Amino acid sequence: MGAVFDIDVAKSHAICHLDTHPNLDLTTKLKLCHHFRIISWLSPTFKALVSQPIESFDPSGLRQIPTHILHALIQVKHWITTHRLTLAAITPPAIAGFSGLTPATCAPKWESVWREGPAEMLRHPDIFYAGRDILSKLISTDLSPVCQDCGEMSVFNVQDSGSLVMEKIFVDKILGELRTWLTNQ
User: Which has the closest alpha carbon to 155: 92, 106, 104?
Assistant: First the structure.
């Protein structure tokens, strides 16, 4: 009624109560977000959808998502998958510690530690691990094959590079474009 008669108070009331409605699924929420330009729903709903495997959606749910938003969802999921597979295939460089050992001494051992821990998690796009989970795995992995200084410096390099949180940058970039598109419609 609020949308039909352009009553702002009624629209705000409906949006507030629908946001917490237990039977409102994510795809329907995106459909309503698009139809009624509810910008505040876009970010949390889109992020929740990105965190789920695309195969988990039923076809009827996907049909509800507006084409532009669905394309953006598929695009960002593709970027994330490609990035994760690249991280799994290319081991971050071993950084020499202060103990005087060269990276050449620890590099093969570091590569082995990386491949057996975080890279294994990144290789499986069907199981989603957040960058923080992968970093925790790296920190908890047995780094004893690598000297302590090189291990600490190499882990710090992975943390500091931001490569494990690039997914957030991908999502934020797409969300900025979607907000602009939704606002200008």
Answer: 92
CA–CA distance, 142 with 151 (Å, rounded to integer): 10
Q: With contact defined as beta carbons under 8 Å apart, do 147 and 99 qualify? A: yes
Rounded-to-5 percentages of helix, strand, coil across the chain: 70, 0, 30
Instruction: Give the ranges where the chain is alpha helix by DSSP (H).
Output: 8-19, 26-36, 39-50, 59-64, 67-89, 103-116, 118-122, 131-140, 148-161, 166-183
Tell the residue number behind the tokens 């949390």, with chain if given: 44
Average pLDDT, 10 consecutive residues per value, the chain (185 residues): 52 58 77 86 91 81 89 93 89 79 77 87 77 82 83 87 86 95 89
User: DSSP class of residue 100?
Assistant: S
Using CA atoms, how far apart are residues 11 and 82, in angstroms rounded to an integer?
41
Is the Cα dihedral 40, 162, 129, 138 positive or negative? negative
- Close Cβ partners of 81 (under 8 Å, ≥ 6 residues apart): 125
